[in-house]
C-alpha cells in the first residue's frame, strides 16, 4: 500500500489533532506495539531465534526501554523547553535511591524531639512512582535558578546537582541503609502479588511503563503546556509578553522531566541492575542521555526511542563487526572508537540536522507522500 | 472610516522617562490612547518608539512617570499584568516561535484563556480535549480571517517574511486583546503585502473594536490608517494630533529633515 | 581551636591548586570572549596536549636525545598538534555553525570533547604517564613562627608564576597586537566584524590555537602534579564553576575565580568536611557557583546582560 493521505478527509478538529493523523502511521504504530507486546513474549516463550538465550532481552531490550524512558524525560526539558541539563544522571539516582528507601522502609530517628519517623516498606509500584515524585521535587528546586539564569549558566547549575548527589549517595550511609560496601540491592519485585523475576517479565513491566509514559508525554507536548514549553525554548521574551508565565512553564518542564527520569532511574536500579552503586548514575550517564536526545531528535518523543536504540546498538556493532571481519580490536580501542563516532555524529547532526534522526525520518515520509513527484 | 468614541481613555502614559546608562531613550513623554482608535507613533530612527511600546507592555521599566491602563495607575507595568490585562504585541523583528507551526504559534496565544491543568492535559481526555477543540475553533477563525489556511501546519521558520508577520498578528489576535501594539507591521513588505496588512489592521479595528497603537515608517500608510498620531524625536514628544495637524507641524518636518532646533 | 599555621598551609595549598583551575578557565574565557562559544572541550584539550607532550618526550628521551632538546621538541610537537586540532575544529565544527544559538554551539563542543578524548587516547595511549618538567620538592616556610612550619610545594609556586606570565602575555596580545584587536572586534559582533573585512575564520582559528596553547601550559603543570591521565578532564570540568564565579568574559575573573574555588574547597574540605563525611571537595565548587549564580548571575567580574527585542 502506498504512503498516501489522499482520501483521508478530516471532518472534525479532533481527528486532525490525533497523534498520528495519517492512517498508515497509525497502522505502523499498531504493528510495532503488536510486536512489542505480543510478538516478543511469544517468541521468547518458545525460545525462537533471536530469543534462544536471554541475551537480547536482558542486555539490549531492557536497557533500551528504560533509557528510552529517561531520554523522553531529558527531551522534555532539553528538546521541548530548551533548558540544558547535564545532571540527568543525578535525577535517575534520586529516583532510584528514593524508591529503594521507600521500598525497604524509612526510618528517621529524631532523637532530640523524642520520636522517630517510620514508614513501613511500601509496595514496589508505589515506591517507584514516589521515587519519580522525589526526583520531581528536587528537579523543581534545581529548576528555580533557571528563572534567573539561562542556557549555559544553567548547565553549570545542573552539574552542581550531578556532583552533589553523586556525593550524597556515596557518603551519606542512611541512603544505602548503612551497607558497608555502598552497594544496595532492590527489594523483590512484587506487583499486586505478581512476582516479576524472569527477563521476559521484566521486559513486559518496562514496556508497560514506557508505553504509558510515552503516551502521556506525547499528550503533554502537543497540548497547551507543550506549546508553552516550546514557546519558552524558541523565544522566552515573546512568550512572556503573550501571557506565558516563565515560572510555571519552566518549573512544570523540570517537574515532568525529572519525574520521568526519576521513574526511569528507579526502573534502571530495580529491574535492570538489581543491585547497584552510585557509579551507575554518574555524569557519563547524563552525557549519554543528552547524546541520545541530540542524536534521536531534540523535541521529538519518537526521537528519544531512536536515540536510545542507536546509542545502545553502536557499541555492540563495534564489538561484533571487526571480529566478523577478522580484525579484532582491543576493548580499549573500541571504547575510544565509540567516543570518536558519538562525538563526530553529534557535531554532524548539529550542523546538518539539529532535529536528529527523527527529523530525517519525517523528511523521508514527506518525500514518500509526494512520491514519485518531487513537489 | 469609523470614528472612535472620543471620550474614554484606555491607556494613559504620563511623564515617562527611560534611560539605559547614560542614553536617554524617553524624556518626559506623555500620551494617551483612546478606546477604539488607531493611534500611530512615528518618528525618525532612534526616536524611542519601540521603547515606548516596551514601557507600555512592561518589558522596560521607566525611571520616572506613571502608566494608567483601564483606570489603574502604576509606576510600571509587568509583562504578565499587561498580557493579562489585554495588551497584545507584535515585534519589529518578527518574534515568532521558530520551531513551531503557524497553528501552534497562534494556539500559544490562547494560553491565558486555557484552564485545564497538567493532569488533564496529560490524559487529553474529556474536558481537556474539549477545551483544546474549542480553542482550535477560535484559532481557525483567526486563520480564516488572515487568509493563511494553507500554511497552518508549516513550521514558521520556513515561511516567507510577509507571512510570518501575518502569523504574528494572528498570535496577538488570539489573545483577544483590548489594546494591540504593532511595531512596524509593514516593515520590509512589498506594496501588495502592505495593502493586505492595512486591510487586516482596519478590519481588526472595525470588527473587533480593538484599540491599536502602531509604529510605522511608511507615512502614507500612517496618515491613511490612523485616527491620531504622536511624533517622537530623540525621546521627546514633539507633536500630537490628527494626521492633518501633524503633517503641517513645522517641528515634525524639521525632525524628519534632520534640522537642528 | 584551629591552628593558624595549619590554616595558612591549607589556604596556600588551596590557592595554588586554584591557579591550576585558573589556567584551564583562561582557555574557556578566551574562546567565549572571541566567539561566544562555551567550550566544554577545554578539559579534553588539556588531556590531548598533555598526552602529545609526554608521549613525544618519552619517545625522544628513549632514543637518546638530551633532555633539553627533547623538551623543546616535545613542546613544539604538542603545539603543532594543538594547531592542527584548532584548525580542524574551526574548519569542521565551529565554522559551519556560525550564527547558531549558544546552546547548539555548546552541545557541539560536547561532541568535540568526545572526539578529542577518544582520538587522543587512541593515538597516544590511555595509561597514566608521569611528567617531570618542574621540581616538586617541598619547602618549609616560617618554621620560626609556627610549630612545624608551613609546607609549600615548589610546583605550586611554579604554577603561580606561569599563570602570571600567561595572563600578562595574553593581556599584551589582546591590547597591543592587530590580531588581538580584531579578536575583540569579532567578540563584540560577528557579522559587523565580518563586514569590515576581518577574516572571521582565521580569527577563530587563532582563538582556538591560543586556547590550545593555554591548554598545553596547563597540561605541563597538571601533568607534573598528577601525571597525564584521563581523569584530568574531570578536574578540568571544575573550570566551569570557576568561570561562573569569576564571570564568563573576564580574564581577571578566571584568575580570581580559580583562587576562590581552590582555596574555598580545600578549606571547606579540611575544616567542614570532617563533620559531614568528607569528600565535599567533589561538589563544593559547583554548589558555590550555584550560590553565586543566584545572587549575581553575571559573576563577580562579568558584564551585566541587557536584553533587547
Structural features, described:
By secondary structure, chain A is mainly alpha-helical. Chain A contains 14 helices and 6 strands. In chain A, the strands form 3 sheets. In chain A, strands 1-2 form a two-stranded antiparallel sheet. In chain A, strands 3-6 form a two-stranded antiparallel sheet. Chain B has a 6-stranded mixed β-sheet, with helices on both faces. A 4-stranded antiparallel β-sheet of chain B has the order 2-1-4-5, with helices on one face. Chain B is globular, with a radius of gyration of 19 Å. The mean pLDDT of chain C is 83. Chain C is globular. The longest helix of chain C has 32 residues. Chain C has 309 residues and is mostly helical.
Question: Outline of this structure?
Answer:
The complex is a heterotrimer of chains A (375), B (261) and C (309). By secondary structure, chain A is mostly helical.
Task: Kindly report the spatial arrangement of strands forming the biggest sheet of chain C.
Answer: 1-2
Structural class, judged by helices and strands of chain C? mainly alpha
Proportion in helices of chain B: 25-40%
Chain pair forming the biggest interface: A-C, 43 and 47 residues
Structural class of chain B: alpha/beta
Could you report the average pLDDT of chain C, rounded to the nearest whole number? Answer: 83
Write the layout of secondary structure elements.
The complex is a heterotrimer of chains A (375), B (261) and C (309).
Chain A: H1 13-16, H2 23-45, H3 55-80, H4 88-104, E1 106-110, E2 115-119, H5 124-143, H6 151-171, E3 184-185, E4 190-191, E5 194-195, H7 199-221, H8 224-234, H9 236-241, H10 246-273, E6 275-276, H11 283-296, H12 301-325, H13 331-352, H14 356-370
Antiparallel strand pairs in A: 1-2, 3-6, 4-5
Helix pairs in contact in A: 3-7, 3-8, 3-10, 3-11, 3-12, 4-5, 4-6, 4-10, 5-10, 8-10, 11-12, 12-13, 12-14
Chain B: E1 9-20, E2 23-34, E3 38-42, H1 49-56, E4 64-69, E5 72-74, H2 79-85, E6 87-90, H3 102-108, H4 118-123, H5 127-145, H6 161-174, E7 179-183, H7 191-208, E8 211-215, H8 219-225, E9 228-233, E10 236-241, H9 243-248, H10 250-257
Parallel strand pairs in B: 3-8, 3-9, 6-7, 7-8
Antiparallel strand pairs in B: 1-2, 1-4, 4-5, 9-10
Chain C: H1 4-35, H2 42-62, H3 67-94, H4 102-124, E1 138-141, E2 150-153, H5 154-176, H6 178-188, H7 190-195, H8 200-226, H9 232-237, H10 239-246, H11 251-271, H12 281-295
Helix pairs in contact in C: 1-5, 1-6, 1-8, 1-10, 1-11, 2-3, 2-4, 2-8, 3-8, 5-6, 5-8, 6-8, 10-11, 10-12, 11-12
Amino acid at each position: 500500500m502506498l504512503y498516501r493521505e489522499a482520501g483521508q478527509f478530516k471532518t472534525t478538529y479532533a481527528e486532525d489533532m490525533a497523534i498520528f493523523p495519517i492512517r498508515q502511521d497509525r497502522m505502523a504504530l499498531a504493528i510495532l506495539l503488536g510486536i512489542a507486546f505480543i510478538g516478543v513474549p511469544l517468541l521468547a516463550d518458545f525460545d525462537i531465534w533471536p530469543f534462544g538465550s536471554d541475551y537480547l532481552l536482558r542486555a539490549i531490550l531492557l536497557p533500551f526501554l528504560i533509557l528510552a524512558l529517561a531520554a523522553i524525560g531529558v527531551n522534555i526539558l532539553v528538546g521541548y523547553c530548551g533548558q540544558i541539563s547535564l545532571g540527568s544522571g543525578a535525577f535517575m539516582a534520586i529516583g532510584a535511591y528514593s524508591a529503594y528507601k521507600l521500598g525497604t522502609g524509612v526510618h528517621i530517628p529524631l532523637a532530640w524531639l523524642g520520636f522517630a519517623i517510620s514508614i513501613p516498606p511500601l509496595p514496589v509500584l508505589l515506591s517507584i512512582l514516589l521515587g519519580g515524585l522525589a526526583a520531581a521535587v528536587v528537579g523543581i528546586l534545581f529548576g528555580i535558578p533557571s528563572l534567573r539564569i539561562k542556557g549555559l549558566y544553567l548547565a553549570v547549575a545542573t552539574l552542581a546537582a550531578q556532583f552533589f548527589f553523586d556525593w550524597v549517595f556515596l557518603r551519606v550511609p542512611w541512603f544505602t541503609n548503612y551497607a558497608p560496601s555502598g552497594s544496595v540491592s532492590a527489594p523483590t519485585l512484587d506487583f499486586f502479588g505478581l512476582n516479576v523475576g524472569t527477563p521476559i517479565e521484566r521486559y513486559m513491566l518496562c514496556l508497560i511503563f514506557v508505553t504509558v509514559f510515552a503516551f502521556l508525554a506525547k499528550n503533554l507536548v502537543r497540548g497547551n503546556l507543550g506549546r508553552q514549553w516550546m514557546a519558552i525554548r524558541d523565544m522566552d521574551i515573546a512568550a512572556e509578553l503573550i501571557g506565558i508565565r516563565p515560572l510555571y512553564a519552566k518549573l512544570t518542564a523540570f517537574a515532568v522531566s525529572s519525574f520521568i527520569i526519576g521513574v526511569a532511574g528507579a526502573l534502571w536500579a530495580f529491574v535492570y541492575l538489581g543491585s547497584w552503586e552510585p557509579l551507575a548514575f554518574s555524569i557519563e550517564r547524563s552525557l549519554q542521555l543528552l547524546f541520545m536526545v541530540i542524536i534521536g531528535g531534540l523535541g521529538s518523543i519518537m526521537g528519544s526511542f531512536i536515540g536510545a536504540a542507536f546509542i545502545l546498538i553502536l557499541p555492540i556493532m563495534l564489538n561484533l563487526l571487526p571480529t566478523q571481519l577478522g580484525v579484532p580490536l582491543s576493548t580499549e580501542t573500541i571504547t575510544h572508537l565509540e567516543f570518536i563516532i558519538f562525538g563526530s555524529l553529534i557535531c554532524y547532526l548539529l550542523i546538518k540536522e539539529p532535529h536528529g534522526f527523527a527529523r530525517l525520518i519525517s523528511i523521508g515520509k514527506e518525500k514518500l507522500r509526494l512520491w514519485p513527484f518531487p513537489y | 472610516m469609523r470614528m472612535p468614541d472620543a471620550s474614554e481613555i484606555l491607556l494613559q502614559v504620563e511623564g515617562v522617562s527611560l534611560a539605559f546608562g547614560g542614553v536617554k531613550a524617553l524624556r518626559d513623554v506623555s500620551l494617551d490612547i483612546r478606546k477604539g482608535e488607531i493611534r500611530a507613533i512615528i518618528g525618525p530612527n532612534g526616536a524611542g518608539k519601540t521603547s515606548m511600546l516596551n514601557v507600555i507592555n512592561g518589558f522596560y521599566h521607566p525611571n520616572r512617570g506613571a502608566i494608567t491602563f483601564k483606570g489603574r495607575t502604576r509606576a510600571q507595568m509587568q509583562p504578565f499584568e499587561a498580557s493579562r490585562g489585554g495588551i497584545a504585541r507584535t515585534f519589529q523583528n518578527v518574534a515568532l516561535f521558530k520551531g513551531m507551526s503557524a497553528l501552534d504559534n497562534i494556539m500559544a496565544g490562547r494560553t491565558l484563556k486555557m484552564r485545564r491543568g497538567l493532569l488533564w492535559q496529560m490524559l487529553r481526555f474529556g474536558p481537556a480535549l474539549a477545551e483544546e477543540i474549542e480553542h482550535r475553533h477560535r484559532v481557525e477563525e483567526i486563520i480564516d480571517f488572515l487568509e493563511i489556511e494553507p500554511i497552518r501546519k508549516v513550521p514558521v521558520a520556513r515561511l516567507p517574511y510577509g507571512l510570518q508577520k501575518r502569523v504574528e498578528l494572528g498570535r496577538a489576535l488570539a489573545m483577544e486583546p483590548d489594546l494591540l501594539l504593532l511595531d512596524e507591521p509593514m516593515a520590509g513588505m512589498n506594496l501588495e503585502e502592505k495593502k493586505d496588512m492595512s486591510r487586516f489592521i482596519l478590519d481588526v479595528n472595525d470588527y473587533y473594536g480593538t484599540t491599536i497603537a502602531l509604529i510605522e515608517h511608511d507615512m502614507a500608510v500612517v496618515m491613511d490608517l490612523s485616527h491620531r498620531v504622536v511624533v517622537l524625536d530623540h525621546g521627546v514628544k514633539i507633536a500630537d494630533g490628527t494626521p492633518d495637524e501633524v503633517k503641517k507641524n513645522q517641528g515634525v518636518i524639521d525632525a524628519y529633515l534632520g534640522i537642528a532646533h | 581551636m584551629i591552628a593558624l599555621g595549619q590554616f595558612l598551609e591549607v589556604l596556600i595549598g588551596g590557592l595554588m591548586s586554584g591557579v591550576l583551575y585558573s589556567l584551564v578557565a583562561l582557555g574557556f574565557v578566551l574562546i567565549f570572549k572571541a566567539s561566544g562559544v562555551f567550550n566544554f572541550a577545554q578539559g579534553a584539550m588539556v588531556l590531548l596536549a598533555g598526552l602529545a607532550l609526554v608521549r613525544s618526550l618519552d619517545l625522544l628521551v628513549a632514543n637518546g636525545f638530551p633532555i633539553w632538546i627533547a623538551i623543546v621538541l616535545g613542546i613544539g610537537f604538542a603545539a603543532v598538534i594543538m594547531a592542527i586540532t584548532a584548525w580542524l575544529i574551526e574548519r569542521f565544527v565551529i565554522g559551519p555553525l556560525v550564527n547558531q544559538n549558544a546552546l547548539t554551539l555548546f552541545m557541539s563542543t560536547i561532541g568535540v570533547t568526545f572526539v578529542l578524548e577518544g582520538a587522543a587516547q587512541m593515538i597516544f595511549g590511555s595509561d597514566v604517564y608521569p611528567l617531570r618538567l618542574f621540581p616538586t620538592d617541598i619547602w618549609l616556610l616560617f618554621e620560626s613562627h609556627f610549630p612545624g612550619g608551613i609546607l609549600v610545594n615548589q610546583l605550586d609556586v611554579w604554577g603561580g608564576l606561569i599563570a602570571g606570565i600567561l595572563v600578562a602575555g595574553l593581556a599584551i596580545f589582546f591590547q597591543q597586537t592587530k590580531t588581538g584587536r580584531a579578536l575583540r572586534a569579532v567578540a563584540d559582533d560577528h557579522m559587523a566584524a565580518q563586514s569590515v573585512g576581518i577574516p572571521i575564520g582565521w580569527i577563530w582559528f587563532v582563538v582556538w590555537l591560543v586556547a590550545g596553547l593555554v591548554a598545553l601550559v596547563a597540561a605541563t603543570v597538571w601533568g607534573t602534579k598528577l601525571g597525564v591521565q584521563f581523569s584530568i578532564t574531570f578536574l578540568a570540568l571544575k573550570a566551569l564553576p570557576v568561570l561562573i564565579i569569576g564571570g564568563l568574559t573576564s580574564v581577571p575573573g578566571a584568575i580570581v575565580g580559580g583562587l576562590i574555588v581552590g582555596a574555598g574547597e580545600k578549606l571547606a574540605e579540611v575544616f567542614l568536611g570532617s563533620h559531614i563525611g568528607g569528600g565535599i571537595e567533589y561538589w563544593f565548587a559547583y554548589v558555590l557557583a550555584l550560590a553565586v549564580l543566584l545572587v549575581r548571575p553575571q559573576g563577580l567580574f562579568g558584564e551585566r546582560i541587557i536584553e533587547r527585542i
